[in-house]
């Protein structure tokens, strides 16, 4: 019965945590609302989840999350330096095509989300067959290095986690 009520328990847990982070208050009313959302949203979106995402290694996934958090902190500092101290005419924005070999839709979505969450970069598009992402970088003096960094730092880890 619990499995039918909570078809995606990890999503339900994330929704509860997210709700408490949004309301920033521990109260019975907040808990009730969090439980309502954690029950209804997974049930309403169940049809769009034909298969459960397969995570091969939770420790690798936890390490990936830690890496992304660290990279977001560092990127915030780098973007602040670029915006505050670099003359506008020296900023080299660029669109970069990143070829990907990930097959799992969840892994591709996580890669695109990671790129977008990291300040200074945003995923702008994905080609029709899912083999390349188009990203925009605020400052890309060496676009090939940014592409290689994304492939080596994120895609390689996501392959080990999902495939």
UniProtKB/TrEMBL annotation:
Report one GO cellular component. Answer: plasma membrane
Against Pfam families, the record matches this protein to: MNHE (PF01899)
Single GO MF annotation = monoatomic cation transmembrane transporter activity
Principal location: membrane
Keyword annotations of the record: Cell membrane, Membrane, Transmembrane, Transmembrane helix
The family database entries (InterPro entries) matched by this protein are listed as: Cation_antiport_E
Where would you find the membrane-spanning parts of this chain?
6-23, 30-49, 61-84
Compartments, as annotated in UniProt: Cell membrane
Describe its membrane topology: Multi-pass membrane protein
Protein family per UniProt: Belongs to the CPA3 antiporters (TC 2.A.63) subunit E family.
The name this protein carries in UniProt is: Na+/H+ antiporter subunit E
């Amino acid at each position: 019965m619990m499995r039918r009520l909570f078809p995606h328990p990890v999503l339900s847990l994330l929704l509860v945590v997210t709700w408490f982070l949004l309301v920033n208050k521990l109260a019975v009313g907040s808990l009730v609302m969090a439980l309502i959302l954690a029950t209804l949203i997974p049930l309403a979106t169940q049809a769009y989840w034909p298969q459960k995402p397969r995570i091969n290694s939770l420790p690798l996934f936890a390490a990936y999350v830690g890496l992304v958090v660290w990279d977001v902190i560092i990127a915030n500092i780098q973007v602040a330096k670029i915006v505050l101290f670099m003359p506008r005419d020296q900023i080299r924005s660029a669109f970069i095509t990143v070829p990907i070999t990930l097959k799992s839709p969840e892994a591709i979505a996580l890669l695109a989300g990671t790129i977008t969450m990291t300040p200074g970069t945003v995923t702008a598009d994905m080609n029709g067959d899912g083999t390349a992402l188009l990203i925009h970088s605020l400052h890309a003096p060496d676009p090939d290095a940014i592409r290689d960094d994304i492939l080596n730092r994120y895609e390689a880890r996501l392959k080990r986690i999902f495939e």
